[in-house]
Amino acid sequence: MRVISGEYGGRRLKSLSGDNTRPTTDKVKESIFNMIGPYFDGGIVLDLFAGSGGLAIEAISRGCEHAYCVDKSYAAIKVIQENIAITKEPEKFTLVKKEANSALSQFKASDIQFDYVFLDPPYAKQTIEKQVEWMKEANLLKEQAYVICEVDKAVQLPDELASLTLKRRQTYGGTEIVIYLND
Question: What gap in Å lies between CA 36 and CA 43, rounded to an integer?
């Protein structure tokens, strides 16, 4: 696993060992960023189920200004910290060790709004529809924000979600990427 492009392009990232996580493959990550960017002029990122932090680091590498990486696992937080250290710009990242819904409540209380939200929850425990609806109601999404969901291809996310518009749906093996726009 590596950073595909941008300022940190080519740097190797660590991933969690074991079967508890499925890091986004380099091929899928590159495709995601080609669909939403591929490069950015600022923007705030939320990686709600960060795992290794690879999506957030890729977004910062391509020009986003700050990323919030959320994960409830101590092991994941440790790997994310190590991967952020590889960037040599830790000030561009905020780590939040919390369960996803608790973190969303914390962000609402802080009046933070996001330009890019990555949702790649454990497939068996995904509640993406409820979380996106809650983010929209809580005003956590900036106008023109992208919400990028990575789900098992058997999961059928709707074409319209919380008044966000479906921009793209793409399948890669057993994974489906669904991209919404808050327009």
Answer: 12
DSSP string, 133-163: HHHHHTT-EEEEEEEEEEEETTS---SEETT
Question: How many whole angstroms separate alpha carbon 71 and alpha carbon 162?
Answer: 24
Q: Are 114 and 143 in contact (CB under 8 A)?
A: no
Which of these CATH numbers, 3.30.70.330, 3.40.50.150, 3.30.160.270, 3.40.50.1110, describes 26-181?
Answer: 3.40.50.150
* Predicted confidence (pLDDT) per residue in 133-160, tens digit: 999 999 999 999 999 999 988 888 999 9
Sign of CA dihedral 66, 112, 99, 146: negative
Question: Rounded distance, CA 110 to CA 175, Å?
Answer: 33
Q: Is 172 helix (H, G, I), strand (E, B) or coil?
A: strand
* pTM score: 0.94
Q: How far is CA 91 from CA 1, 86, 94, in A?
A: 23, 13, 8
Q: How far apart are CA 171 and CA 183, in angstroms?
A: 24
Helix or strand (DSSP H, E) at 83: helix 74-87
